[in-house]
Structures are given as structure tokens and as C-alpha cells.
Specification:
Chain lengths: 275, 275, 275, 275
């Protein structure tokens, strides 16, 4: 089980969310918070946007908690939009090309969950990736395969429809190979402007996914918390597990939904795989 | 908190104890067994003897649980005497030269615990290392410093006395710097023939240390366990935490004692730091 | 340009050929011997046979010349048959799953050279890998793809024919994509009993490949060299570049040939790609 | 033999000097430019200043040429003052704590060269480091020892005098141990405002060191080179080896001199070790 975090809003240093907080992502990498889950020590990655055309990505196979370069980077880099991911491998090799977030052009993608019986269905899935995209696949994970399938199915034009088609295809392929519950996922993807966060699983019991409450609400509730002051009203954090203990700071995304963080009102839509 | 294992007896593949068992050392590296202890993901090392004059050492900064080379090595190498150690850093850098076991000539050394306030006392400790030994120090840990102090104080001639002197010196130095409880340790060291295992702490509440029961006793108790058959009566395993659930297989070393595994009867002696 | 070495004969410590000699493989990794070739610092691997059913493999992304574990391993392990490879990447990622030798069951495979325009032809090549073999592909290199194509085409039954078919297929696929000279290779493969070494390139100017002279001949020529005495008459070394300066010790494999090291007389056969 | 680069002037992306140019530092890491020197594949580091109180440092044990994170970082980070260093170990371990630049407070330090017979003199040198600084030493190199000796001897107050005292002490200590020519060095150090670059060796034949010509001169000479336009007249690059082939762009620092890059006119002073 992996963990991830997506941030969109007023530019902040990455370390604010990755390092400093109680229950920061790095802290979570070492100690699972709720119960007997695994340690996330199989590498990590961060991807961030600045003024360049494509996002930057830093990925390592070391545990996040003991990587000094990650701390240096997180203290040096500010960004209005970044992804971070800590990995617990479900079987594929521990190597940088298998760590999230994955990047294609302006897009980033990260995933918590798995395609069940991936070795059995991998070939059929990979064959469905568009020929022009195929050479860009660098790793061997189910997560990256899902990214390239979504790109094949129109991610850059209509992200929600593309991910619905991707999931529909993964479920269909799994069923053809006798896999009952082919997919379990929370996914975040972005083009550097909007962030889409998906929660879905074949069994209808998906891994957790939380949005931070609107900043204006939070500021009204907690006028004494200084660190909220500098953040714009539209600032949002999406996480696999809550980062702190502030009551009412987090809202769970419902089962089989997609949340969209964008300028103006955010959206929350039902998610339905397409055949 | 680190974990370690020392094996002496009939030659076996390293994987028998490092990989295969429930609660093998690698399994322990990922999941602490009893309660809320830390994950041991800050590197590992194995040292083993064969027919060469000096022991071989393999050390890595990756978590033991995801290092493929360790599994290959553990499946390929057999040895009658080997040490294995998984690290949870207490602050010093994650690098191969800081992973156990440490080697000097025919000797290996590994440690679980710490010298408290090490940065404050390090200079005084390091200055006490013999000039001829000083250049062989490769890392920056308290554990390696203890090894070189013990070598300075006669480890190769009288291991028990040397470690008692080393601990006495560390306690004295700590007290001079205002450290109340200067040392916490379980230590294993060997010259390739005997194994010495020490349990001591300034506060009299040392970390756990267990010896396996005599093989002839175990065989009599469990005549149906095939894997015990091939092992000589003198085979012993010393561990920071028991490796399995076999009742009566493990004996705890008492507080402030040293156990010596050697041909003929093993010994268990009180351990008293020397001024 | 990579470099490799295959050894078959009397059991010796790996370090004899990897570390100790002038122009040992590790020495070659740092300093190319003849002219302006690249440094081989993009990882290395060794694979060796002992009494186990499958060979052991140790692979690392560090330069061979500064990897301490490789030196430890090479000093500890003896084997009658081993492969070693040092990598200079032609573009694919530096990760353990991309380092040679590759292993499948009892087979090892390593390669120096490249499939030209690999990103353009990769999809068609990968699709031709048998469905049952597909999930075993772990990396992203042209070299591993060649291995799985050869396995698909019968490597385990008739290695020479399978590699001829594989090369024929790679050339045909390249031509279909407008690649003039699709392949450049020296390859070694083994089942733990025999070693097959191939030299071929579409342009007819393949990278170098040398066999050591028969040991009985060498012993007669150099009666004073002690280190030859212990080696059986059938001992052979196959290398991409000669390891030392002993005159008449090395014979170049001719262009478009395959050499087979086996009990009894070795063989040297023409190599002809099959459509 | 290591290589290094120091930049001071108009803020630029690190990649401009580390990646993009012909004979960039990364290019140099793979191919030595002039003759038969060693490959610099034993790790690298960059240190840079932005608006934070202390500089950031990114260090890795992988070869600079195949480290993807370095390329990402160099494309993302702009700085008006940065150091970069590629390492060829002279014997000490390949680990992050042994890679340059070293950092203490606001200071960075990097070195090309060596203290001869370092294992023999190390203890005496380390003992001379101030007690308050001693715990900050993290690695085991001669280069870091020189840094902490210079800090002990007043680097933060009078850098030139401190380095002259440090070199005098290293030479005296070497002579006491029978070392004829104790030190060989080019060194760069900075407090984030000025840069000091030293060239000295006991034998009077120091490794090369070059300053870029004043930008106003260069602009007058080469009015057509667009990339010079954006750079302030005070921008300077100091390098162990020239980065390109522009005639008259580089001035060699004379033997036994120190150059100081600072606001206003730079300085070039004789360097004389102090007893």
C-alpha cells in the first residue's frame, strides 16, 4: 500500500507538507498511522511545477525517511502544484523508473492500489497502449501501465472519461483472465492547472482519499492558526491519509467518485467505468 | 533499535535464518514483532567465515527486505559461522561504512543500542583509540568506535576483559560530560572460532538477547522436526529477538552477562565494566 | 559499449578474472584499453553456477570499480562457470533489472552491442515474445528483449538455431521500420553446461570477441606460469577484450560465427540469421 | 583527480554549466579532456544559494553522467552562486558524506587534490580540529578534514589567513611523519557572498585552475554571442578545467595564488602557507 499527497494553491516550500508536520508524508513513510499497515520504504518521488513547460521530478529508491537529498530539495523548492508519493511495492522491482509520480509531457500521475494478477493480464494491457506512446514506458508497474492506457484513451482531452475508459478496460481484461476484482485504486493526475483525484475499486471498498476543507472555511473556524493566513482560499491538499489532527480539516471522497480541483468551485462527480 | 543474529555450528545456507523462517531477520526488518518499535530499513550487513583467512562482508544501505542481491547471496553462501545485522539509525548517516558487522582482521563486531549523547563524547572516545588502529576506522558510528576501543583495550587477547574495559571507559567518559546513563548495548563479536555475546546497559534494563537451546535438548524435545536433524549438537543461534515460535527453543541472556559459544560447554559469565 | 567475460572450466574464485589481473574486467571498466572508447560505469553484474538448480546473480548500478561488495563476493565465491558484464548504457535506464547477465531458469544471457532504433521497433519485438514468457521480462533493454525472443524461438532446445531466428526476426523488423543495419552484437549464453558465444552484426563489422587458447597448448608454451597448472585442459575464457598481454593466449572469433564451449572438442560454426 | 566549478554572478539555471555546454562538468565526468586522466565516476555534489540562510546541497554516489535526478535538479534550480564537484576517489569510501561540497553554516568548501599519506597523518590532523566543530565532521576524507581545520583556524573571519594556516599545519604534520610533499590542492570556498579559490601544492606544480575573463571584456570581444548578454559584468566562473573552446575566455590562476571573487574589483594574491 502506497501513500500520496497532491497540493494545489499558494506556492509553498515542499517541506511544509513532506517534512515538517506531525504525520507529514515522510513521517507516514516510517510509521503507518492507523493499525497494521506496511512500511512505505520502497522508494519515493516528488513532481512539481514552476515556470518551466514540463514538471520536474525527483525519484529515489531509498526510503523517504533517510534520504538527505529529499530534505534538501524539499527545503529549497517552492511550488504552487506538486505531487509526492511513497511506495510499498506490491511485487515489481525497486527502481527509479517504477516510482511515482510518472510524467508524460505536462502530465503527472500517481497511484495507490494495484491491478490484481498483473503478471497475468499485463501483456494484453500493454498491447492496448498506443504505438506512439509505447516507447515512453520506462518501468514495469501496473501503475505506469494504467497511465499510458489513460493517455491512449484521451487523458489529455477528457481526463474523467479517459480514466473511466481505462478502468473499464482493465476490468474487462481482468474478467477475461478470470480475475474477479481486477482493480483497486486511488489516483491523482494533473496537467499543471487542474488536479483530478479518483477513488474506485472493483469491490467497492476503495482505499481512503481525503480533500482538505476550503481554506476560507478553515480560516473562519480557526482564526488563530497563523500558517493558514498566507494560503489562498482555493488552496487544496488531497491525501491518501490525513496529515494532522485538526478537526474538520479533512473530507473523505466518497466511494467511486472523482474530485476536481480547479479555479473557481471544485467538483465532485460519480465515477463509472466505461466498457 | 537494530536487530542482529549470530550463528555458529553446522554449515548452513545463510538464507535458512535470514530469509526462510517465519520471523526471519528479513521479515523482522519490515515488521517489528512485539509492539511499537521502529522499522529496520536503514541498511543491513552480513559477515561470514569460510576457508579464507578473513571473513567476508556484504553491506548495503537499502532495506534488507527489498535487496535482491542479499537474497541471491543468502541462497548461494553456506557458512559455519556468520553474523547478520539490520539497522535503524540513531542519527548517523546511512552509508555502507556505518553498517554492521564491522571487520578488523579476523574479527567481526555488531551492536544493538547506542552511546548516549555520542556527538558530545565522540572526540574523547576516538582519541583513546590506538594510533595504529585509528586509520582503519571507516565510518562515523558509536558502534564502530566501541569496536576500536575494545581492540585498543585487548579484544584480540582477552575479549571479555577488553569489552569490560571499553564499557568502563565509555561510562567514565560519559559521566565526565554529564551523561547519566552512557551506554545501552547488546554486542556480538567473534574471531571465527568462538562467539562472545554481551548484554549490558548503564540503566540495568538492556535490550533483549537470546541463545538457542542446546541442539541435543531440542532434538530430544522435538524428534519430529526434520530440520534439526542435520545440525550438530553444538550449533547455536544468538539473536536480539527470537526467530520463531518453538516453545523452549530460546533462553534469555540475563542482564549484565556475557555468553561464550565455543567448542565444548558454552559459558555464561557476569559482565562488570572496569574502570 | 559494454564488456563481458565468460568462464568455463576448473572452479576458480571469481576475483581471479574480475579483480586481480592486469586488464581484469574491473580494470577495464575504468580504463578502456584500446583508444577512445567509453567508460563502463553504468553498472555491472555477475552470474555463477554452483550446486544449486539455478545460477546465482549479483547485479548493481554502481560502477564495478568502486563496489566493495563485488570485491567481497568475488573473493568468496568459486565457480566452474560464470558470466560477468560491465555496462555502458546506450540509453535505457540505469537499474538492476537492466544489467546483465539476465537469467531465466537455468539460463544466463549477456550482450554487448545494440538493436538500432530500439524505441521504434521495441513494440513489435516485445509482442513476439511468447505469452507465457512475457511476465518474466523485468527490464527495458534491447538485450533482455533479445533473450526473451530467443527463448520464444527455442533457445532451450537448439540455441544456435534460436539465436539465428531471433537475429533474423530483429533484422526483418528493423527493415520494416526503415532501419538499415538493425543489429550489432556479441552474445554469450549458457545452460550451466555449455557456453555459446555469438559474434554478428548487420554491417559485418562486429565488436570484438576472443577465446582463450586451449590450456594444454598454453601450458606447453608457458611451462613456467604457475597459475596455469591447476586449470584443466578444457578450461576456457571468452571475452570481449583480451585480459592480459600473454602472446598467443587469445584467438579472435571470426565475423558471423558462433563458438561452443563444451566437454570434448569445442566447436566454431558459421552464424547465419534465419528469416 | 576530481573536477570542480564555482559560479558567481547573474542567477542562471545550474544546467547551463553542468549539463548543456560542450565540455560541461557532466561531460567532463565521463571523458577526461586532456589525455589519460581518470574518469570522475565516484559521485558528485552541487551546493547552491538562494534566499535561505544556509546553502542547499545535493550529493550522490552515482556517476554524474547517469544521475537523472541531477539533470532534473539542474533544470529546475536557478542560483546566483553555486558550487559543483565530481569525484574520483583517492581511496576513501564512496559515500554521500565524502562527496563535495562540504557545508558548515553558510559556508561551502570543495577540493581537488589530496593530502599525501593521509591515513598516516589523519589522527594528528583530526585532533587539531576544535572540540566544538568535531561533532560536525560526517565523512572520512582528507578534503573535509582540511575544511574543519580551516574553520578551526579562522575561516569565517579571515579566509586567506585561515587556509594559509591550515596548509602550513598540514605540511608541518606531514613532515613530522616523513612525508616529503604533504599537500596538493585547488580549493574553493564561499560564505555566499565572496568566493575564494586557492591553488597550491608542496611541490609547486599544482593542478590547474582557471577564472573566466571579465564579462565586459568578453562581451566587447564577442558581441555576437547572445548568451553572454544577460550576464552581469561581474559574473565569474572558476573551474579546474575550461568548459569550452572560446579563445581568451579563461585565465589561469598562477601557482601558489588565491583569487577572490567579490563585488567590485576581484583580487589575486600570493598564497603562502603559515607555520
Amino acid at each position: 500500500m502506497c501513500r500520496w499527497l497532491a497540493y494545489s494553491g499558494s506556492p509553498i516550500k515542499l517541506e511544509e507538507l513532506l517534512v515538517k508536520r506531525a504525520h507529514s508524508l515522510i513521517d507516514q513513510s516510517l510509521h503507518a498511522r492507523q493499525g497494521a499497515t506496511t512500511t512505505n520504504g520502497d522508494g519515493f518521488g516528488v513532481g512539481w511545477y514552476d515556470d518551466a513547460e514540463t514538471p520536474s521530478v525527483y525519484r529515489s529508491t531509498h526510503p523517504a525517511w533517510n534520504d538527505r537529498n529529499l530534505r534538501e530539495l524539499a527545503a529549497a523548492v517552492s511550488s504552487p502544484l506538486f505531487f509526492a508519493h511513497i511506495r510499498a511495492s506490491t511485487g515489481t522491482a525497486i527502481q527509479e523508473t517504477n516510482t511515482h509520480p510518472f510524467r508524460y509531457g505536462r502530465w503527472l500521475w500517481m497511484h495507490n492500489g494495484l491491478i490484481r494478477e498483473f503478471p497475468r493480464v499485463k501483456r494484453d494491457l500493454v498491447l492496448a497502449v498506443d504505438e506512439s506512446l509505447f516507447p515512453s514506458i520506462e518501468g514495469t508497474t501496473d501503475s505506469e501501465t494504467m497511465f499510458y492506457l489513460a493517455l491512449t484513451m484521451g487523458l489529455e482531452d477528457d481526463p474523467v472519461a479517459a480514466v473511466e475508459r481505462m478502468v473499464g478496460f482493465v476490468e474487462q481484461t481482468g474478467h477475461e483472465h478470470g480475475v474477479d476484482l481486477p482493480i483497486q485504486m486511488t489516483i491523482a493526475t494533473t496537467d499543471g492547472q487542474k488536479v483530478w483525484a479518483f477513488r474506485y475499486s472493483s469491490e467497492g471498498k476503495s482505499r481512503s482519499l481525503f480533500f482538505s476543507t476550503r481554506m476560507d472555511t478553515l480560516k473562519a473556524l480557526y482564526p488563530d492558526i497563523e500558517e493558514l493566513e498566507g494560503l489562498s482560499d482555493e488552496t487544496r491538499v488531497i491525501v491518501s491519509e490525513p496529515l494532522g489532527d485538526l478537526p474538520s480539516a479533512w473530507n473523505e471522497v466518497p466511494e467511486a467518485h472523482v474530485g476536481i480541483v480547479e479555479p473557481g468551485a471544485d467538483e465532485l462527480l460519480p465515477f463509472v467505468p466505461r466498457a
